[in-house]
Amino acid sequence: MCWAGRMVLGTLSILLGLVQAAAACEFGPFPYRSTGIVCRMTKPAALLLNRETAQVIQAAFRNAQFPNITGERSMRLLGRVAYGLSGIQVNDLSIERSEVELREDNAIHISIRNVTALFKGTLTYGYAGAWFLQLFHSVDFEIESSIDLQLNINLMCQKDQVAPDASDCYLTFHKLTLHLQGDKQPGWLKQLFTDFISFTLKLVLKREVCKEINTVAQTLTNYILDLAANFVRDGDIAVDISLASDPVIKATYIESYHKGIVLYRNSSSRLSDSVFSPSLLTESRMLYFWLSEHSLSSLAAAAFLEGQLVLSLRGEKLQELFEMEDSEVQRKAVQMIFQGTSYNDSVAKVWSLSQPQISFQPEGTIVRSLVAVEIRILLAGEEPLVALYMEKEITATIQATYADKKLILQPVDSSVVIKVFKCTADPSGEDPSIQSFLQNMILAAGIPEVTSSIGSALTSLLNSKRLDLFDIINPEIITREGYVIVQLDFGFPSHLLLNFLEKSL
User: Fold this and answer.
1) Is 96 helix (H, G, I), strand (E, B) or coil?
2) Which of 416, 423, 410 is closest to 441 using CA atoms?
3) How far is CA 39 from CA 26, 124, 243, 290, in A?
């Protein structure tokens, strides 16, 4: 789930940021074998994101830098007329509708219908073709326009990252009307300049608007890639999401393939036997992530090496564990371990002694690990007393869900084998009732407490990456042999688009 949030921003950013073509990248003969993460976005997602394309296109129009336009033309009776349009700006921009089409094995086609824009600036003109003559005039102008915009977005790969090309851009002008402002203008002036300026103006508008759209596409892509890089990094632990294979564009979905290699300090894992196949994913949801067992197992190993698999319990939490039942055996165990000390004056530490072994099966995620538990009694003015130390092999089957913006880990089957047991009050280990009680307590309450704490920690990490700002709808986490699938629908992430438009444009 740590990389789920990088996939939504806006139509262009999604379609450009997730899918990474490979025109300039080399892949091996069997690229699927090195695929650790797959993202599939279906047509309904593209349609949803396309609703807000207008904001991106409007930004492109408003940020286009229109150069001054100059020229001259010979006119009967008047001689040569020189002209210049300067200070061109866009005002009152609106878009009637936008459509997106996934053209199979080709490109992403975006059609923007009826873009109405009002261009304003200053028109300067003079007769006889000489600007140094005293006979010249300046007048403010407005140009009403109605334009259709066609974009075919090709996706290329540079240095294993996306390089969008939106230069296949066409503007069709349905209306281009020049209005001159001011008094005492010759009646023929409007028609004169409309006739021989409009062609030049159309070329300039097309060039500058299409250039700005291409620039916005590049900026959006860089923004998404920066978000993605941050999303899959936690301190010294990171995930390599560069391309593992060419993307696929079908009429109903877009699919991209990523290495998913875990990078930890100066080491990294390698994946050469991925079990991914496109047939493993369906098209009933808006967004899919396929995650390999290798990638998630490598993340757990890195977390172990980083010393993150440690949990401390004291006070009420400790009391809840040891007083889950009220029996003579329970009271005897509590007395022998804590020796009458308050739970507030004791601390339990749980940590993994070995790298957890993770495997995915239809029934859930199976985790195997050697775990240590130590209970210390804190004595005023003295060194803490180790009242209990034990090592145990734990095997747990865990099912994961995501609801109410929280990742929930629920153990459904567990087993515990105690390997080492040392208790200050029973140094000989002759009282089996304590070990029996502890084993039952670990199964009934200890493992659920640890998995709940891991779920809370992962939720905090995901929310620190702003995943909680996304409108994630009915997410499902489905485990299969060797991989896990996360599938979901989502609402449009307006906050990301607005953040991008404010910071980048």
Assistant:
1) strand
2) 416
3) 20, 54, 11, 7
Tens of pLDDT, residues 428-480: 777 788 888 899 999 999 999 999 999 999 999 999 988 888 899 999 999 99
- Mention every residue, 6+ apart, whose C-beta is less than 8 A from residue 411: 396, 397, 398, 447, 448, 451
User: How distant, in Å, are the alpha carbons of 30, 238, 266, 295, 301 from that of 269?
Assistant: 18, 11, 11, 8, 10
Residue 325, SS3 per DSSP? coil
Give the C-alpha separation, 17 to 221, whole Å: 5
pTM of the entire predicted model? 0.84
Q: Tell me the pLDDT tens digit for each residue of 269-285.
A: 788 889 999 999 999 99
Buried b (16+ CB within 10 A) or exposed e, 13-51: bbbbbbbbbbeebebeeebbebbbbbbbbbbbbbebbbe
CA distance 147 to 99: 15
- Is 18 in contact with 45 (CB distance < 8 Å)? no
Q: Strand ranges (DSSP E) for 224-286?
A: 233-234, 237-240, 248-249, 253-258, 261-264, 267-268
Q: Which amino acid is at 226?
A: D
Tell how many helices (H) and how many strands (E) occur in the chain. Answer: 10, 21
Q: Is there a contact between 273 and 292 (Cβ–Cβ < 8 Å)?
A: no
Query: What are residue 95's phi and psi, to 5 degrees?
Result: -130, 130
Show Cβ contacts of residue 8 under 8 Å, excluding neighbours closer than 6 positions. Answer: 14, 49, 287, 470, 490, 492, 493, 496
Amino acid letter for position 16: L
B/e letters for 270-299, b = 16+ CB within 10 Å, e = fewer, are ebeebbbeeeebeeebbbbbbbbbbbbbbb
The DSSP call for residue 442 is I
d(CA 213, CA 424): 72
Asked if residues 99 and 114 have their Cβ atoms less than 8 Å apart, the reply is no
Please tell me whether residue 480 adopts helix, strand or coil conformation.
strand
Q: The tokens 């062609």 sit on which residue? A: 199
